[in-house]
Amino acid sequence: MELHQLRYVAAVAEAGGFTRAAEVLYLAQPSLSVQIRKLEKELGVALFERLGRKVVLTTAGEVFLEHVRPALFHLERAREEAVAVRNLQRGRLAIGTLPSAGASVLPRVLAGYRAAHPDIELRLIEHNVSADFERMVQVGELDLALTRAPWSRPGITGRVLIREPMVAMLPPGHRLDGLAELDLADLAEADFVAMSTGSGLRELLEASCRRHGFTPRVTVETEQLSVLAGMVRNGVGVSVVPRLVAADYPVAVRLADPRDARELAVVWRAGGQLAPAARALLDLLLTATRELSDETTVDGEP
């Protein structure tokens, strides 16, 4: 049983004859008759009978068509829905993001995305651990995730979006306030305000400090970037974060060592084609981060 045969049965029943149905279907009448006979042979029952010059459904044909019509209706709806998804008139998109990227990179991107594609449902998931995002992308819980590079999980692919320098967030009036850049070792004796243990930003802080020969003395931990900024602003301690995280903070001094940097990436599941909604967002992310790269570089001028 083939889909076109079902459509032919419905057309003949509606037209009341093979000739008119063939005209409606833009099909040669003999071809139409052959397909109906093939279907009747497969079913083992006649679907139509002739009453004078008309063709009418048999009892079996009436019962058969009762199921065919809703099936054809739902198939047409399925086709329309698929086309709507292709044309970005409908769809769902699940995005994972590190909180720092969610606050700095995503707002302008999602504003443009929503303006262009208002009918796409967006679900945003924030998390501090990049490895969790890789797992969620791999199993299909997320379409895309903004995370740290490099990614390592099998079955994941992606693109590096931006490489940004690390900066020292200092209280206003700090002894190093006003420098164009500083050596991280100059903060070896300072008290630090840091994100919670296990978070990506905490790992970056500790890795940078180890590179410069010390372990940061963390006196305050928090899970909120706004709390971290408030603590530093009021002199509780200093912190070290990627530049985009400190974009709105008044005293952020670039670290002199170019190795002290973060690479942000977008990842998705490998081996398949991105859904249209995800592809459109990826294109916007690449454009937006190219613009950010002009403002935020490691080797060039800021």
Automatic annotation (TrEMBL):
<dbReference type="InterPro" id="IPR036390">
    <property type="entry name" value="WH_DNA-bd_sf"/>
</dbReference>
<dbReference type="GO" id="GO:0032993">
    <property type="term" value="C:protein-DNA complex"/>
</dbReference>
<dbReference type="InterPro" id="IPR000847">
    <property type="entry name" value="LysR_HTH_N"/>
</dbReference>
<dbReference type="GO" id="GO:0003700">
    <property type="term" value="F:DNA-binding transcription factor activity"/>
</dbReference>
<dbReference type="InterPro" id="IPR005119">
    <property type="entry name" value="LysR_subst-bd"/>
</dbReference>
<dbReference type="Pfam" id="PF00126">
    <property type="entry name" value="HTH_1"/>
</dbReference>
<dbReference type="Pfam" id="PF03466">
    <property type="entry name" value="LysR_substrate"/>
</dbReference>
<protein>
    <submittedName>
        <fullName>LysR family transcriptional regulator, hydrogen peroxide-inducible genes activator</fullName>
    </submittedName>
</protein>
<keyword id="KW-0805">Transcription regulation</keyword>
<comment type="similarity">
    <text>Belongs to the LysR transcriptional regulatory family.</text>
</comment>
<keyword id="KW-0238">DNA-binding</keyword>
<dbReference type="InterPro" id="IPR036388">
    <property type="entry name" value="WH-like_DNA-bd_sf"/>
</dbReference>
<dbReference type="GO" id="GO:0003677">
    <property type="term" value="F:DNA binding"/>
</dbReference>
<feature type="domain" description="HTH lysR-type">
    <location>
        <begin position="1"/>
        <end position="58"/>
    </location>
</feature>
<keyword id="KW-0804">Transcription</keyword>
